[in-house]
Amino acid sequence: xxxxxxxxxxxxxxxxxxxxxxxxxxxxxxxxxxxxxxxxxxxxxxxxxxxxxxxxxxxxxxxxxxxxxxxxxxxxxxxxxxxxxxxxxxxxxxxxxxxxxxxxxxxxxxxxxxxxxxxxxxxxxxxxxxxxxxxxxxxxxxxxxxxxxxxxxxxxxxxxxxxxxxxxxxxxxxxxxxxxxxxxxxxxxxxxxxxxxxxxxxxxxxxxxxxxxxxxxxxxxxxxxxxxxxxxxxxxxxxxxxxxxxxxxxxxxxxxxxxxxxxxxxxxxxxxxxxxxxxxxxxxxxxxxxxxxxxxxxxxxxxxxxxxxxxxxxxxxxxxxxxxxxxxxxxxxxxxxxxxxxxxxxxxxxxxxxxxxxxxxxxxxxxxxxxxxxxxxxxxxxxxxxxxxxxxxxxxxxxxxxxxxxxxxxxxxxxxxxxxxxxxxxxxxxxxxxxxxxxxxxxxxxxxxxxxxxx
Length: 455
Known about the structure:
Strand content: 5-15%
Shape: globular
Radius of gyration: 21 Å
Structural class: alpha+beta
CATH class of the largest domain: Mainly Alpha
CATH topology of the largest domain: 2-methylcitrate dehydratase PrpD
Number of domains: 2
CATH architecture of the largest domain: Orthogonal Bundle
CATH superfamily of the largest domain: 2-methylcitrate dehydratase PrpD
Number of strands: 8
Strand order of the largest sheet: 6-5-7-8
Largest sheet: 4 strands, mixed
Order of helices and strands: HHHEEHEHHHHHHHHEHEHHHHHEHEEHHH
Distance between the termini: 43 Å
Oligomer: single chain
Helix content: 40-55%
């Protein structure tokens, strides 16, 4: 089948000058969104505790722990930067693969570029190549990889991170192939059980994948080899997509249309700090709050009707002692937070906010159902209908079929800029404007440290 080899060949030969303008622009927006997520994640105590762990072990280095105020080794920097890209759960995502490529790919691309003193054009190449390499195996297995107990952000992200680093290192086809192959041996299990149980170790999957990808590419540069059939497998029956999926993978998705279409253009952005499956409900209640006049104190009942995977993954309620990971994956909490605060951002995930008993009581009024009609629309549409009943028996209803951020209902450049400004907190506005301008003109940046030192 040679799907892995064809993918490696494509990535090795990819150049900035041959990329379509919309692909280049999308890569820049992905990087800008990534920086916004770093700022937002730094609002969380758990993230800061993890950073303190790394800081205590820091022996110096040339790579920036973005937003953290120190430099460290390449491997530690990309791990930290992958965690902060992932933790707030506002990272970009690929609907057809159920993964979040930016959390692994961009830390690997920017970290290795900073270390190698590489400029912006090659970083854009690395991001595009990395997204292809992360998204294609995820799509080949979706949704069976997740239903088999894995999180593709971590597993498939390591392939993308390896390709991104290999691109920065300007590897030839054989070296690129070995980088991707080595990633298949080093990648994290990234167990879905941790996420579904609300355990906070979930936030490290982007960092673990980024660090594994860096190591895989580094090993390839040192001459270590891996199977050239790592994604699809050989007669040995050990290909990654086959051994980690409960159903037969769609192998053609690994290499079909390479260079004709780019998966990065199908990546969505998140306006809310929660699992994408909650976004239809979040958007519906926020729009109802703006359109109708009612008080949350007068709400008697909230019924949320959605598609099956959403009800399964994010339909559960939370308790006051649960973690922010549980909150990110709870439609009831998301709905209550949106109704109470009129927004869903980093501050809605802090320990202080989640301890509010009124917020928890409101979330207990929310019931989530699988709706057969909406389920039949999935995955073409991720439809959710919210029905709010008041104590005086008035009822309000809103259905969202394609939540904001989907390429069909996109978050624009202006939207992403507003997001980074919201999440930046009290950071210097002049410096923030420089960061935004530099990312939007990334091809003109001579060395990545010009950008990383500003973040």
